[in-house]
């Protein structure tokens, strides 16, 4: 009777690759934990003896006859819950978010708006918010809790002639254009009765405080949720130029196309408009929070670390080539190098796109470029959702191409068809977190070892 042989040992290179994929996942998970909204509120939103501190601003609650809360975005419920945990259930208002929470907060009306495209509830939320703010007075304090995704989650077209179908078609054209988010939102602002400072315009002359969880580039806060409470830095002239640059006119519905062809867009309120006289803004979380947390973890893991956010809003191929080049330069002379990059890349999606998102498209492109090398690349969204997939993103390395080929999968075809998710799902390289109730943009982690 022959003795059975022990199973073959896993090759050291494969073990190292798996270890580095796990390490990249750990860095991303640590960044998510540091971006916790309750954690951020505990540091920057305080309540004591009738005084509410929002960042550096203090409000004596007894000075107001009424306080309203409008919380909109992917973190709509999470932010309102964190506020309630700080001050108690003393406020009323409206919450517009994409997913139903386990339990609703007392005193709030909820709307489940669509994302990335608005739905009927988005328009109902917009109507309700505008009616609520229209009843405010100089003795009212309005607290806005604003997070990413609010552009679609709460909406009200600027013209009664624009239907939901028109708005959805316009949003689709903008999202698929390949334009950076700031340019997309410039157009959204001028087509909306809420965006580009118009909520502040409706609520004036009340006191208005905006608490922000930012998913936009640093220094472009008026792009967050298309800036409903902030002075708008974009103009109608910008909108006309953007539409021409990306050849968008033919993609718009007839009602929107007519506004552009006749140059009938109305200007949004700007910096010195008196509607902003009593407006204040506090950013409690941003992409920098996630980047700094990832850097902290990488340093503790013994990597030489560099941050490069210069490719924010670049095309994904250009961004990948740039970051991989920087990583290889950093790798010279050190045993372990780690490059951290925050922000978002753009993908101009074809008409027959599959299932995936910008992070998975970026990761799959990188997989081809690093085949056979000791390099690991993670790209994921802090909202836990990448495009139209169930994944937050993906992590790849020098073995990804080989592992995909062993399963009979075609990486080039998946890239061309914008269909990365099924491939990553099969080989186990997807990053699955579920919706996080938060969003501070994307995080990319590149490691060479």
Identify the CATH homologous superfamily of the largest domain: Glycerate kinase, MOFRL-like N-terminal domain
For the CA atoms, what is the radius of gyration? Answer: 23 Å
| CATH class bucket of the largest domain | Alpha Beta
Distance N to C terminus: 46 Å
Structural class: alpha/beta
**Please, what is the average pLDDT?**
94
Count of β-strands: 15
Architecture blueprint of SSEs:
Elements: H1 12-34, H2 37-44, E1 45-48, E2 51-54, E3 57-60, E4 66-72, H3 76-87, E5 92-97, E6 108-112, H4 120-134, E7 140-147, H5 150-153, H6 164-175, H7 181-190, H8 198-203, E8 207-213, H9 236-245, H10 254-261, E9 279-285, H11 287-300, E10 304-307, H12 316-331, E11 337-342, H13 358-369, E12 375-381, E13 393-397, H14 400-406, H15 411-416, H16 420-427, E14 430-431, E15 442-448
Helix pairs in contact: 1-11, 2-3, 7-9, 12-13
């Amino acid at each position: 009777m022959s003795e059975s042989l022990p199973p073959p040992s896993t090759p050291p290179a494969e073990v190292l690759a798996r270890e580095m994929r796990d390490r990249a996942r750990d860095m991303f998970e640590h960044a998510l934990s540091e971006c916790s909204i309750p954690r951020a509120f505990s540091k920057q939103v305080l309540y004591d003896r009738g005084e509410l501190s929002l960042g550096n601003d203090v409000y004596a609650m007894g000075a107001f006859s009424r306080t309203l809360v409008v919380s909109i975005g992917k973190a709509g419920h999470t932010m309102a819950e964190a506020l309630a945990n700080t001050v108690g259930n003393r406020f009323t208002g409206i919450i517009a978010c994409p997913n139903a929470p386990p339990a609703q907060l007392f005193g709030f009306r909820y709307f489940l708006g669509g994302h990335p495209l608005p739905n009927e509830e988005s328009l109902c939320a917009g109507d309700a918010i505008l009616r609520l703010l229209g009843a405010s007075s100089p003795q009212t304090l309005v607290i806005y809790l604003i997070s990413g995704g609010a552009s679609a989650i709460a909406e009200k077209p600027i013209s009664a002639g624009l239907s939901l179908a028109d708005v959805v078609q316009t949003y689709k054209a903008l999202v698929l254009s390949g334009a950076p988010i700031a340019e997309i939102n410039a157009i959204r602002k001028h087509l909306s009765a809420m965006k580009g400072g118009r909520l502040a315009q409706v609520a004036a002359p009340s006191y208005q405080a905006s608490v922000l969880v930012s998913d936009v580039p640093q220094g472009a806060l008026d792009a967050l949720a298309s800036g409903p409470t902030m002075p708008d830095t974009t103009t109608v002239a910008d909108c006309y130029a953007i539409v021409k640059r990306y050849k968008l006119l033919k993609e718009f519905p007839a009602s929107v196309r007519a506004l552009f062809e006749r140059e009938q867009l109305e200007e949004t309120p700007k910096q010195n408009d008196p509607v902003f006289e009593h407006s204040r803004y506090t950013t409690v979380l941003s992409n920098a929070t996630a980047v700094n947390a990832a850097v902290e973890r990488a340093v503790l893991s013994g990597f030489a670390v560099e941050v490069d956010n210069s490719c924010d809003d670049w095309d994904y191929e250009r961004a990948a080539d740039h970051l991989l080049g920087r990583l290889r330069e950093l790798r010279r002379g050190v045993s372990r190098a780690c490059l951290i990059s925050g922000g978002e890349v753009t993908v101009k999606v074809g008409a027959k796109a599959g299932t995936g998102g910008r992070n998975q498209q970026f990761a799959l492109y990188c997989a081809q470029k690093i085949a056979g090398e000791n390099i690991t690349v993670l790209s994921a969204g802090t909202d836990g959702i990448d495009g139209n997939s169930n994944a937050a993103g993906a992590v790849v390395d020098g073995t990804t191409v080989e592992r995909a080929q062993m399963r009979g999968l075609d990486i080039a075809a998946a890239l061309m068809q914008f269909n990365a998710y099924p491939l990553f799902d099969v080989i186990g390289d997807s990053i699955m977190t579920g919706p996080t109730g938060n969003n501070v943009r994307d995080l990319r982690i590149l490691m060479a070892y």
